[in-house]
Amino acid sequence: MTAPILALEGVKVTYHGALVLDVPSFELQEGRTLAIIGPNGAGKSTLLRLLGLLEAPTEGRVLFRCRPVPPHGDLLSLRRRMASVFQEPLLTDGTVEENISLGLRLRQTDRAEVSRRLQDWMGTLGIRDLAKRRTRALSGGEAQRVSLARALVLEPEVFLLDEPFAALDPPTREGLLADLKVILSKRRITTVFVTHDRDEALALGDQVAVMIGGRILQIDVPERVFANPINEVVARFVGVETILPGHVRAVSDGLADVEVQGWTLQVAATLTPGERVLVCLRPEEVTLFPKGTTAALSSARNQLHGRVVRHLPTGPIYRVTIDCGVLLVAAVTRQSWEELGLADGVEVVASFKATAPHVIHRA
Amino acid sequence: MELIWQGTKQAILLLVRGDPEVLRIALLSLQVSGTATLLSLLVGIPLGTVLALTRFPGRNFAMSLVNTGMGLPPVVVGLFVSIFLWRSGPLGFLELLYTPTAIVIAQLVIAGPIVTGLTMTAVQQVNPRLRLQLVGLGASRLQVVWLLLKEARLPLLAAVMAGFGAVISEIGASIMVGGNIYRQTRVLTTATVLETSKGNFDMAIALSLLLLLLAFAVNWALTWIQQRGRAS
Fold it and tell me: Which residues in chain B have Cβ-Cβ distances shorter than 8 Å to A79?
């Protein structure tokens, strides 16, 4: 692995005595997009400001291309190799063109180069038609495109984004997200992207870091973070809705029998008998059948009998909670919900494969 | 009514004929108050910007002082500037009392806090997150300040108008430190008082009309610049 472009060592940030960020070590690889997810107040924006050299850590140090950043020195030349975009577009009064060229003018870039990059990036972001428009007359989505262009035109070595889509309506957000994904991968721009939205992180990140309570709890490729969260807190944040405490009773042929509140679940995982574990189950892994139908046709090893206690329609997917002695959450399409004749109070069989659960070891 | 009518008619005649005395007084007013306003901008804009953008112990106290200063009674300013410039006062050796310079100094003391206070408010009205964004785009400290002032330029023009308006129309300080000396320190406001006390209403009305006209012209020009910035 090559040397990281940015790194943190033993970094702590405290505000008025309260510890808001505690990152013993962190590395950002060049050309990659790292998505940082976490709930509000997790310290994501603070981390981003440290990486952008907009704030100095209370303790520890920041390294840019393996050189420690002086905490109180003149950071202007280093900062000029990066660019940040925030949730609000924060455009200045003037035309779109004036805004996009702002950073280049601050760097006294020569005119021909400014105009070349303006054309290039306004074209890439599809805002060439807006060049002469006053920024006050832009829609939210247009303004955020201008804000992105204003940062990207600097062709920064590190591109930092703090929830840039949080204030946009869903269609605008999706359009911009798709365009940004193409831009970042085509131009191989090293990016750190902060969001509280799991879908945005999945869409953009080559890697995902989960931050909670000022700490980075897990950092990995998105598939692994979402499928194999390292602990219950991460699991809950990445959307695992069913987390069942149990203990391993027996192990044979790579299959473990895990006892969970009266049920014996079969789980494909490397476990040892007697071990205490958490069985994590994503809603989309659970299939429902009305009681009495041929659930046996299902190859799933785990079949639990229970009753639908509530359902929550979220678009075309219903999140259904089933009481089997333990509470399970299943994701069912509206079509299946109707075809299977499901309703609150109906008795059902909830089934899932032995490979479906992710197991976390408990202390 | 007759008095007003006659006075106004005479006043217009004086203005139309371009009475040299009236013009001299108006010109001096414009020079003195214009200079005082310019100096107050040189002091007030940097000071207001620093107060708006920095954090230091005693900042709130300093801001309260400025805000109080915005309402300084001109006679109080006149009194203290007089004492300072008095022959036996601390700055008496400068021999500035009863000169136009003395009026400029007094008016600077009046306009300075107004411009400082309004600059402070204007800069604070700019979205505080814009500052971080500008730093994040590679702006140096001076570039950040310049860009923030540019963003605040419309309310800053209001500060200029308020400063000029306060000094062109004040009389207490001008009369105390200037002395209303014929052909030396007589300005529109002090002359108006004098002519009124003598019963020369035509002259007094001419001077007041000119004062209004001057104030209007300057504010009209500034408003025009301000609103042009808003409309485009």
Answer: 135-136, 138
A vs B, Cβ pairs < 8 A, gives 54
Look up the pTM and report it: 0.83
Provide ipTM, 2 decimals.
0.83
B227 interfacial to chain A (CB closer than 8 Å)? no
Q: A98-105 — which CB contacts under 8 Å span 24+ positions?
A: A99/A135, A99/A146, A99/A150, A100/A146, A100/A149, A100/A150, A100/A153, A101/A153, A102/A150, A102/B137, A103/A150, A103/A151, A103/A153, A103/A154, A103/B137, A103/B138, A104/A153, A104/A154
B229 contact residues in A (CB cutoff 8 A): 93
Pick from B129, B133, B138: which is nearest to A154 by CB? B138
Burial A282-301 (b: 16+ CB within 10 A, else e): bbebbbbbeeeeebeebebb
- Interval A164-219: pLDDT, tens: 998 888 888 999 999 999 999 899 999 999 998 888 998 899 999 999 999 999 99
A161 to chain B nearest CA, in Å? 11
Contact across the interface for B138 and A134, Cβ inside 8 Å: no
User: With 80 as the cut, is the pLDDT of residue B162 above it?
Assistant: yes
Q: How far apart are the first and last CA of chain B?
A: 47
- Residue A296: pLDDT band (50, 70, 90) is low
Weakest mean pLDDT among A203-212, A295-304, B143-152, B218-227: A295-304
Chain centre distance of CA A356: 22
**Separation of CA B75 from chain center:** 15
Say if strands A207-212 and A215-220 run parallel, antiparallel, or are unpaired.
antiparallel
Q: Closest-CA residue in chain B for A92?
A: B151
